[in-house]
Amino acid sequence: MSFFIPYASLKRLLKYTCVCVIVFIFIALVTESISYNRNPDYGVSFSSQYAQYLGLDVNETFDAIVEEMPIENIRIPIYWDQIEAKPGEFDFSQIDYLMDKAAENNIKVTLAIGLKVPRWPECFIPDWSDQTDNIAFKQSLFQMIDVVVKRYRDHLALEKWQVENEPFFPFGECPAPEPSWFYQEVDFVRMLDPIHQIQSTASGEQSLWFLRARGIDTLGVSLYREVWNKTI
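RE: above sequence
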């Protein structure tokens, strides 16, 4: 029994095969340049904002975590609206306590800074900030980053900076993502502190991770189990 494949169909098949091969080679080249940690160090994130939301004492809760849990790494978001409730007036008493307590217990800290950091509503913008004036808004953001980095870059507990949280993912009560701003923030932090590494994060399976790794030392990936459901 013989059968024949029409020339047009064969041509399409070859075309799709070539595309698949090119995509495979591209993925192989990209993933080859990415290093994977086979022995990860586990840690936790601590949100003072969320502790307050739950009606917990921030300091007591943090003390319990670092003293009773067998962890060596902790991520602490710095909320812009909490540290700069009034323009140019900074209150670091809460962050100072957390950093000092971490140092006492030999905990390595990743400080998350920027416009968008962990926990809802994602962006913690002070009420006084004028988002309608793009230039002024950007200046106030970078001024905050400048003050924060200079304050903690020599702290014993600091291991690395996290610049923004899922900066390219349009989620939360946030302005539209500005990729150029993010890259400028990374460069700015590295200029202020060339010693400590910089990380950022990507949004699980909802983004192309390797495109988010430009300019940073470490990329964190959030795990969101997104499945298809015909009833939704």
